[in-house]
Design brief:
Radius of gyration of chain A: 26 Å
Number of helices of chain A: 26
Oligomer: heterodimer
Distance between the termini of chain A: 62 Å
GO biological process, one term (chain A): ATP synthesis coupled electron transport
Pfam family, one (chain A): Proton_antipo_M
Order of helices and strands of chain B: HHHHHHH
Strand content of chain B: under 5%
Largest sheet of chain A: 2 strands, antiparallel
Structural class of chain A: mainly alpha
Largest sheet of chain B: none
Number of strands of chain B: 0
Strand content of chain A: under 5%
Radius of gyration of chain B: 18 Å
Distance between the termini of chain B: 57 Å
Helix content of chain A: over 70%
Structural class of chain B: mainly alpha
Domain NADH:quinone oxidoreductase/Mrp antiporter transmembrane (chain A): 142-414
Strand order of the largest sheet of chain A: 1-2
GO molecular function (chain A): NADH dehydrogenase (ubiquinone) activity; oxidoreductase activity
Shape of chain A: globular
Keywords (chain A): Cell membrane, Membrane, Oxidoreductase, Transmembrane, Transmembrane helix
């Protein structure tokens, strides 16, 4: 057995999936306490130690192995496939899962949460294993089963704080949206079954569908998988769900589960040999719109985790834009464009699964320290949580796409694609550049706001003033992710090497193209230079501070003698300027009663960013549907006799019909 | 032999009308019990002798003729009700509808694509008519015990249909079906008990308060 493991790395991966699925079981059976959770984290780390080397060796070997599962179910046999596309998507799973599991030891200890802890740990493992199975499944039914387990585990992971109505609402919206998406997948796999005659996935590039059938498959995939990836306008479930989950869960949901949508889309696209141009254009447009709107809405948020959630929409939008670019490149016979698009998209996807969990972990330790997600109640945490602040800064710089971190490298590829390849057949590609630049700019605004309001200035509340640094269990996973972000920025070649074998699965032309117009070592050189410059400046300033001595006192209040921390700039005031630019996109509900009378009493003003799409369009439409169905509910009146009449009438109708 | 079987089936149909037309619960139970016994004898008439058949006949007569009626009579005594008052569908309309359904069943059965050896037999129309009469009782009566009776009549209708296949019916299937029936009646007994305790009446129309709003 052990000998086999050594010879076949894919078995090691399967073993790791099982280990992940079962990691939470001891915690359910043991009496509540630390031991179950520690065992689960140990399992998670072991699973990842087993899987990651195997994954990387398989990926570099570039081979595809299949396992035929001859189960007795009526859908025919199914397959587990280890091809490069699957392997690449397994990497974030086995990276974020053990780190989140370790993080939970400090963030959600069983001792403090005896009622929710064990279940949370169990579903955490189950979610990871089901995501791995989604990626490995090579037939419709198996994928749908794993998908359903994934969606339901996600639902249970959202619910530990179910006393709050907000959490319950978020979980309900998530569940409904998730099942609406699954309906799209049912259409997709049924259509594939009809055209290929088997539930097994067709071979790469072998599906020669045209006309309506191809359009149905593509749109069903776009709706089903796109809603999971949070592409606008199918993103409505995402912000509330990611904001309300415990932070290590948000990290897994945002860092990994969103990618399952991208995986599915790429998988379905890989079936087709020929793809019409409008597919690529549509995905590109959707991606850019998601990126732009996502980050614009993020900029006005006042909830720390909701801001991060909207920024996930932005990042997944960028990934989708890259995929669209690759499709356009393939259809128009431009291998360079195809390469830049797909490599950029997949690289950015890996990056997002590093810095987004990092930022959610940081948000978690802020939450752990202050007990609130409200940006306007924080401030001054940099002094109290120095390590978290540093890692948070690192993550923020990376996610804004600034050097020397990995976000820069991947967005650079996308820029190159938009700027360098906007030639004769598709000059409109150049329009992607300003869009991308705008996204980058707004991202910088958002994350300056996030970092500045949270960590700098004076504390705005009692809780923020008494914040404390997170325990080591929480800091170590964050440091690992931060380190990987830096590695990705300095040596993008390492990440691109992981991405390279995948290209041929989706866009065969891109695989042949390997020469970038520049040497990747420039990233290392320029990145190190930036880093050295920053460190040098820091050292200089520090020295000046030490030599010239510092005096500390309250900020000068223009002579006003009783300044309070409530007079500081808040997140809202920081975002106000941007909010006024984007008021058409993002509506902020301001609740400020006008003063009445000569001597008005104390008054309160508040504001709340609105989920425009959800609250203005989808909920009213659902309300109308509810009214329509109210007539149908009259049929359900509780009279047993009339129910029997229903049965009888049905029977009679059937008898007449059959006759 | 077929002539005798047909006469017994006609008796069954008449018993349907007896159930439909009476308000006395004890009488309905006896009518259904008699119907069960008649039906229990039928397989012996239409199929050649075998020990398997003897077991089926004995089992059916015991369960349908004795066990179930005893259970229901006991429930009637416990709940202390003798009559069905104010049914949804009155007794005369019930009888008229029953006649209508029986006629419809004959018309329908004549048009069914049956196997040649089953054509011209009374089994299919009798089965359909009994089934629909059972439905009629279920729909028209208020008391939970009447509903159990309706359920039994309906089951008898299904049983008549099954007689066509009795030769192919293994003992296990037959035993399973009987056990099913027994459990069904048993569960209904418990439900009846609970209804009467909860609502201090056996009026199933009160159950509408249980629906979700």
């Amino acid at each position: 057995m052990f000998d086999m493991l050594l010879h076949d790395p894919s078995l090691a991966v399967l073993g790791a999936v099982f280990l992940a699925a079962l990691s939470g079981v001891p915690g359910l059976l043991l009496r509540p306490g630390e031991s179950g959770q520690k065992l689960a984290s140990l399992c998670a780390v072991a699973a990842s130690a087993l899987a990651l080397p195997a994954l990387i060796s398989l990926l570099f070997a570039g081979t595809t192995s299949r396992y035929l599962l001859n189960w007795g179910l009526p859908f025919g046999p199914t397959e587990l496939s280890f091809d490069p596309l699957s392997l690449l998507f397994l990497i974030p799973i086995f990276l974020v899962f053990p780190l989140g599991s370790l993080y939970a030891l400090g963030y959600w200890p069983h001792l403090k949460h005896p009622s929710t802890g064990p279940a949370l740990t169990f579903f955490y493992g189950l979610l990871s294993a089901s995501m791995a199975l989604v990626v490995l499944a090579h037939s419709g039914p198996l994928l749908l089963m794993a998908w359903e387990v994934m969606a339901l585990s996600g639902f249970f992971l959202l619910l530990p704080e179910h006393e709050s109505a907000e959490v319950r609402g978020a979980a309900t919206v998530y569940l409904v949206a998730s099942h609406v998406g699954v309906a799209g997948l049912f259409v997709l796999f049924s259509e594939l079954r009809v055209t290929t005659g088997s539930f097994l996935f067709p071979e790469t590039g072998s599906l020669a569908l045209t006309g309506t059938a191809a359009t149905v498959v593509f749109l069903a995939a776009l709706i089903g998988f796109g809603s999971k990836a949070g592409l606008m306008p199918l993103h409505i479930w995402l912000p509330a769900a990611h904001a309300n989950a415990p932070s290590h869960v948000s990290a897994l949901l945002s860092g990994v589960m969103l990618k399952m949508g991208i995986y599915g889309l790429l998988r379905v696209l890989s079936f087709f040999g020929e793809r019409p141009l409008w597919w690529g254009a549509l995905i590109l447009a959707l991606g850019l719109v998601s990126a732009l709107l996502g980050i614009a809405i993020a900029a006005v948020q006042k909830d720390l985790k909701r801001l991060l959630a909207y920024s996930s929409i932005e990042n997944l939008g960028l990934v989708a834009a890259g995929i669209g670019m690759a499709l356009i490149g393939q259809t128009t016979g431009n291998p360079r464009l195809a390469y830049l698009g797909l490599a950029g998209a997949l690289f950015h996807l890996l990056n997002h699964s590093l810095f987004k969990p990092l930022l959610f972990f940081c948000a978690g330790s802020v939450l752990h320290a202050t007990g609130t997600r409200e940006l306007d109640l924080m401030g001054g945490l940099g002094k109290r949580l120095p390590v978290t602040a540093l890692l948070s800064l690192l993550g923020a710089v990376a996610i804004c796409g600034l050097p020397p971190f990995n976000g820069f490298a991947s967005e650079f590829l996308l820029y190159l694609g938009f700027l360098g390849e906007a030639r004769a057949p598709q000059p409109y590609l150049a329009l992607g550049v300003p869009a991308l630049a705008l996204v980058g700019g707004i991202a910088a605004v958002s994350f300056v706001k996030l970092f500045g309001i949270t960590y700098l200035g004076a504390p705005r509340s009692e809780a923020a003033a008494h914040g404390h640094e997170a325990p080591a269990f929480m800091l170590v996973p964050m440091a690992v992710l931060g380190g990987l972000c830096l590695v990705g920025g300095l040596c993008p070649g390492l990440f691109l090497a992981l991405v390279q074998p995948v290209l041929s699965t989706v866009v065969p032309q891109a695989a042949g193209f390997a020469g970038l117009p520049f040497n990747l070592l420039w990233f290392a050189g320029a990145g190190s230079a930036v880093l050295a410059l920053a460190l040098g400046l820091f050292w200089l300033l520090r020295r000046r501070q030490v030599t010239s001595g510092t005096a500390s006192g309250p900020t000068w209040g223009c002579g006003y003698l009783a300044p309070t921390s409530r007079m500081e700039y808040t997140g809202s005031s920081f975002g106000l300027l941007f909010g006024s630019f984007s008021s058409g996109l993002v509506r902020t509900r301001v609740n400020a009663p006008a003063p009445v009378g000569l001597l008005p009493g104390a008054a309160r003003a508040g504001y709340l960013p609105e989920e425009t799409l959800l609250e203005r369009i989808i909920l009213p439409v659902l309300g109308l549907v509810g009214i329509a169905f109210r007539y149908l509910r009259r049929v359900q009146h509780g009279e047993v006799h009339l129910y029997i009449i229903y049965i009888f009438v049905t029977l009679l109708v059937l008898m007449l019909w059959v006759r | 032999m077929t002539a005798l079987a047909d006469q017994l089936l006609v008796l069954c149909l008449l018993l349907n009308f007896a159930v439909l037309g009476t308000s006395r619960l004890a009488f309905s139970v006896r009518a259904v019990a008699l119907q069960g016994v008649v039906l229990g004898v039928l397989p012996a008439l239409v199929h050649p002798f075998s020990w398997h058949l003897v077991a089926i006949v004995a089992g059916i007569i015991l369960v349908k003729g004795a066990a179930i009626p005893i259970l229901i009579v006991r429930a009637i005594h416990k709940a202390d009700i003798q009559r069905e008052f104010e049914p949804f569908i009155g007794y005369i309309p019930s009888l008229v509808l029953g006649a209508l359904f029986t006629a419809l069943a004959f018309i329908f059965a004549a048009r069914l694509p049956l196997a040649p050896e089953h054509e011209g037999l009374l089994f299919v129309p009798a089965s359909l008519a009994t089934l629909m009469c059972g439905f009629l009782v279920l729909m028209g009566r208020r008391k939970a015990i009447s509903q159990v009776i309706g359920y039994l009549v309906m089951e008898n209708g299904i049983f008549i249909f099954g007689l066509l296949l009795a030769e192919a019916m293994p003992v296990m299937v037959e035993a399973g079906a009987l056990l099913d029936l027994l459990v069904g009646v048993f569960v209904m007994g418990i439900v009846i008990n609970h209804i009467s305790r909860e609502f201090s009446s056996l009026d199933t129309s009160r159950l509408s308060t249980l629906r979700e709003e």
